[in-house]
Amino acid sequence: MEIIIAEKIEKIYQDNGVPVTALKDVDIIVNKGEFLVLAGRSGSGKTTLLNLFGALDNPTKGEIKFEKYHLAKMNKKELSELRLNKMGFIFQAYNLIPVLTAIENIEFSMMLLGIPEKTRRERALSLMKELEIDQLADKRPGEMSGGQQQRVSVARAIVNNPTVVLADEPTANLDSKTASNLLDLMQKMNEEKKITFIFATHDKQIMERAKRLVYLEDGRIKQD
């Protein structure tokens, strides 16, 4: 089943008035259940493409469909609701809310969806136990290691049972053992819950585990 269809994608940024082409003529289809890695050197366009998949940015040319939705035809509110309901995000810098505890961070997106407090708490705690981070429930991000923060961010990304999780360099700030444990966790989620994962990375550990590796160079897909 096709989740994302991107056709003839071009993305041009302005750098001090000078146009810079980040993506050129990109065609790609992502299917449900993939563990897909967008790889390439810095500046190859992988993060730009990930951001377009997540409706965090718009292409200069071309069209992206997410399931039945044409992203270009949706307004800001509709795109926000699509991200909230269908997508999970894992960032290199964790992006946890510093004043909230781990469990409150995980509950936050459920709160935005209007899920009752009791249900939110039960679902968050159940997932934390499954991911073996329930001992962190009352800790704030500043009291956790990088690996612990990233596990909480994974829990936050998958708590609403998204169709797809988009991960931008999720292991960049972790040592190799912590990164390996985190990848074990994400592979388990992919296999057991059938959550689609799309990574933008140049981490060889992630690339070695990919079910599909898409290599970008100078804004184009060089190998798939």
What would the average pLDDT be, to the nearest integer?
A: 91
Based on Cα principal axes, name the global outline.
globular
Total beta-strand segments: 10
Considering the protein shown, what is the CATH homologous superfamily?
A: P-loop containing nucleotide triphosphate hydrolases
Structural class: alpha/beta
Helix fraction?
25-40%
Major sheet attributes = 6 strands, mixed
Proportion of residues in β-strands: 25-35%
Provide the CATH top-level class: Alpha Beta
State the end-to-end CA separation: 18 Å
Low-confidence stretches: none
Topology:
Elements: E1 2-15, E2 18-31, E3 35-39, H1 46-53, E4 61-66, E5 69-70, H2 76-86, E6 87-90, H3 102-112, H4 117-130, H5 146-158, E7 164-168, H6 176-193, E8 196-200, H7 204-209, E9 212-217, E10 220-223
Parallel strand pairs: 3-8, 3-9, 6-7, 7-8
Antiparallel strand pairs: 1-2, 1-4, 4-5, 9-10
Helix pairs in contact: 3-4, 3-5, 5-6
What does this structure look like?
The structure is a single chain. The chain starts with a strand and ends with a strand. The chain has one domain (2-223): Rossmann fold. The strands form 2 sheets. Strands 6-7-8-3-9-10 form a 6-stranded mixed beta sheet, sandwiched between helices. It has a 4-stranded antiparallel beta sheet with strand order 2-1-4-5, covered by helices on one side. The chain contains 7 helices and 10 strands. It has 224 residues and is of the alpha/beta class. Strand 9 and strand 10 form a beta hairpin. The mean pLDDT is 91.
Give a short overview.
With about 220 residues, the chain is an alpha/beta fold.
